[in-house]
Amino acid sequence: MHPAAEHSPLGKSSEYIATYTPSLLFPIPRTAKWAELGLTADTLPYKGVDFWNCFELSWLLPSGKPVVAIGEFAIPADSPNIIESKSFKLYLNSLNQTPFADTASLEATLRQDLSAAAGKPVQVRVRTLKDVEREGVVALPGVCIDDLDISVDSYAHPRPELLRCDESRIVEESLHSHLLKSNCPVTSQPDWGSVVVEYRGAALDPASLLAYIVSFRQHSDFHEQCVERIFLDLQRLLKPQKLTVYARYVRRGGLDINPYRSTESVQLPNQRLVRQ
After folding, report:
1. Would residue 273 count as lying in a domain?
2. What is the CATH number of the domain that holds 244?
3. Per-residue confidence of the chain (276 residues) as pLDDT tens digits?
4. Which DSSP string do the residues of 62-112 spell out, in sequence order?
5. Most buried residue, 159, 176, 183, 266, by most Cβ within 10 Å?
6. Which of 50, 113, 165, 184 is catalytic?
7. Which residue is catalytic, options 50, 54, 165, 191?
């Protein structure tokens, strides 16, 4: 378990607070998990963002009439802290009986509180249900590798030694799998996700990638660190000219978490999959 997470509300009984309480937010420093991966804040080999989508966002108009919407939050991948997910939900619940003059006022409050917790500016967008409904769901890019025939006998920890590539061939391609699963390091509850690998470099053996992804199945770690581990393992193997790894996780408690890590400075999409 992450040392700081022991003091978080995750896995503990919590009182439902329905009026604005920003102190509910519980930051967890990224430094300990970066150190596990041999990284520091000054040596991160990627750029990126963690998209959080909230499907249980509600507040009151000045008249007392409630509003429901969907919140989108973009937390920089190099922010000093992640925000513990249950504390995030409790904080959002504290808006339920809180009046705001308008949506802009709500967004400004969210931006201020979440940026303070993360330690870097967080982008906030409050969206109407009609807007999100209009967009619908999307399919992941590239080739799905889930139908490949592989044998698996290890699920406890990620196994980068399973990964193989052909250094004599340089390719540019996108591969994806819906078989990513890991466990919450605090509650041991399952986290289900889909993962995308986009790269230009030595040709990655798709079956070996699938076996590697499945090896996370009983691994305990936060969403963000799973994606960072995959990124680093592929970077070491492929020595790519460019590499992007991202995961779209199934929501829990009305929140989904979607980490993106890339060597490129690109405009990253935040589009729902069918399981989201």
Report:
1. no
2. 3.30.1130.10
3. 445 555 555 554 568 798 999 999 999 999 999 999 999 999 999 999 999 999 999 999 999 999 999 999 999 999 999 999 999 999 999 999 999 999 999 999 999 999 999 999 999 999 999 999 999 999 999 999 999 999 998 899 999 999 999 999 999 999 999 999 999 998 999 999 999 999 999 999 999 999 999 999 999 999 999 999 999 999 999 999 999 999 999 999 999 999 999 999 878 889 999 999
4. TTS-EEEEEEEEEEETTSSEEE-HHHHHHHHHTTTT-B-SSHHHHHHHHHH
5. 176
6. 184
7. 191
Asked if the structure places residue 149 within a domain, the reply is yes
Retrieve residue 106's tokens. Answer: 């709500």
Give the domain range for residue 149. 143-262
> Is the backbone of residue 64 left (phi > 0), alpha (psi -120 to 50) or beta?
left
Judge whether 191 counts as a catalytic residue: yes
